[in-house]
Specification:
binds 2-phosphoglycolic acid; alpha/beta; 15% strand; TIM Barrel; 37% helix; 240 residues
Length: 240
Amino acid sequence: MTMRKILAANFKTNHTRASTRAYVKALDEGMGAMGYEEEVYLFPPATALDRFETANDIRVGAQNAYPTVKGSFTGEIGLEQLEEFGIETVLLGHSERRHLLGESQSFIANKFAWFKERDFRIIYCIGEPLEVREEGDEAVRRYLVEQFEGIDTSYEKLILAYEPVWAIGTGKTATPELIETTHAQIKQLSDAPLLYGGSVKPANIADILAVPGCDGALIGTASWEVESMLSMLSQVKGQK
Ligand code: PGA
């Protein structure tokens, strides 16, 4: 296999400033040691954002940001805070922000347009909850189409992540067949690279990345230990 794969680590509300620094150093050294040449995205918590000097292509992004340069948005960060550290990547539409924090599709679409206008790389997440999956493929397709409402699916700096809500942080990974079917549906809607996310770990990443139409993985829990992340990177490298 020669296709490039994109891996991204989502720390969520894990790691401190100090432990993120140690993680980046270990990741960078590990990537160097194995000769890993593709980019790796890393989304630490906002308090750990920084300019990291790395020898390898580690791109630090924000898990969330408000569509503003600065202003009165208590608890949020805007462009000014991201620019301080040269952050050019943002994760939008994550299911935890949609479902736990109550972000609506129209608000997410606003953010998307705003950060697109500022030329950010956007990793945009979509995915259905269990009750929709249980209704079958057509219900899933309709649900995913709604999550593209207001989104420029041809934006050249877009990376998509399909993350079924029922597979996130639950240990329940979607089967390769289900990922293949759903990725094929999504690929009819956008040509952007398409990652899979939801309980990806060292034990299943090779099978997941071998799925036709899977261009990489967005990893939560299994990315938090650097050894685990490096084990996944080495499998990507081994697949080439
Ligand atoms: P998980 O999270 O790997 O812990 O399932 C994935 C994600 O939410 O991006």
